[in-house]
Design goal:
By secondary structure, the protein is α/β, with parallel strands linked by helices. The chain is 63% helix and 6% strand.
């Protein structure tokens, strides 16, 4: 009788271990959906808040100024004393203070580093100018547009998929290997004819079994609840997710290759994952960071995965148009697995 394939048997063992842990199932399948729901509700599309403008009560003809400003639907106007207005501006309760000394022109007091304050300054200036008789020299026609694909939730869902693939790949695999080492299970495996490559490969292959439901849970949830569409090919989405899963599985194996305690692997995991949490554009665009950091940020595996996922889901691009991101993922996946194979020790 032909002996069973060792890689297949080890992969099945990894799958059984995972299914028997309800906590792991919750963190991989349920928590990302709950996070997407909470953030999607918090940052849902809604009417913009009115800009808060204070008019100092010492301004001559303050009532008329308040009336002129209140004609703008974008402004919420308050009458405050100079002391109250200064306090409100300092604490962010108003975006702009309008004042006028007798015999002087109107003055706008605001913080130019705050986008809301700069916008309030433009809106207040326009309201006053129009109220005092200004006519537009060129007629302007507005065409407001709100389309799926440009919302925050459309940006968020691919980022959460990438984040979940990173977390389940690194934490799930790294912890499992180190836990087996602390329980002396790896020492027993060393006495068998099993190869290191078979053992490590089984972890990466077991990730494939849960890849489809892991990604599908977020994609289907986003589509049903927030109408988030996958504009590109489902095959392309699967390929990108597969590369991301292999990449972070390899990194998890590399960090656990010689680590002997749960505390040590936790430290290494946090050390590697925290920069990607902050820099890789999961919750906000990494373009906010300085230009000199951009090449390093784009070289991170989570950045490449998030960019490739958004290119497929939001822009409908083909895989060939994300070749650089795919190359980055292949590099990290290949290097991490090869290094893990060379550095891995049973004890």
């Amino acid at each position: 009788m032909r002996p069973p394939n060792p890689v297949l048997e080890l992969t099945l063992a990894r799958i059984r271990e995972f299914v028997r842990e309800p906590e792991a199932l919750f963190w991989v399948f349920v928590f990302p959906v709950l996070l997407a729901f909470a953030l999607g509700i918090a940052f849902r599309n809604q009417a913009p808040e009115k800009l808060r403008v204070a008019v100092e009560t010492t301004t001559p003809d303050v009532g008329r100024v308040v009336t002129l400003l209140s004609r703008s639907s974008d402004l919420q106007v308050l009458e405050l004393s100079p002391e109250q207005a200064a306090q409100a501006l300092r604490t962010g309760k108003v975006d702009l203070v309008v004042l006028q000394e007798p015999g002087s022109p109107y003055a706008f007091r605001y913080d130019p580093t705050r986008p809301q304050s700069r916008l309030a300054r433009l809106r207040a200036d326009d309201a006053l100018e129009r109220g005092l008789g200004r006519k537009d020299l060129v007629p302007i026609q507005e065409e407001p547009v709100s389309e799926p694909g440009a919302r925050y939730i459309d940006f968020l869902i691919p980022g959460l998929i990438g984040l979940n693939l990173m977390g389940s790949g690194m934490w799930g695999i790294g912890f499992a290997v180190v836990q087996a080492r602390t329980k002396k299970l790896l020492k027993r495996f060393a006495a068998t004819p099993m190869r290191r490559s078979h053992y490590l490969l089984s972890f990466m292959l077991s990730r494939l079994v849960f890849l489809v439901p892991e990604v599908a849970a977020l994609v289907v949830f986003g589509w049903i609840v927030f109408q988030v569409e996958v504009r590109g090919s489902l095959i392309a989405l699967t390929v990108v997710s597969l590369l991301g899963s292999f990449t972070f599985a390899g990194l998890g194996l590399l960090l656990a290759a010689r680590t002997k305690t749960i505390e040590a692997v936790s430290g290494w995991m946090n050390f590697v994952m925290l920069p990607m949490w902050l820099l890789s554009g999961t919750f906000f665009s990494y373009s906010r960071f300085p230009e000199f950091l951009q090449p390093a940020i784009r070289a991170l595996p989570l950045t490449a995965l998030n960019d490739a996922l958004r290119a497929v889901m939001n822009e409908g691009l083909a895989l060939s148009q994300s070749w650089l991101e795919i190359l980055v993922l292949c590099f990290w996946a290949g290097v991490s697995f090869v290094l893990a194979l060379r550095l891995f020790r049973w004890q």
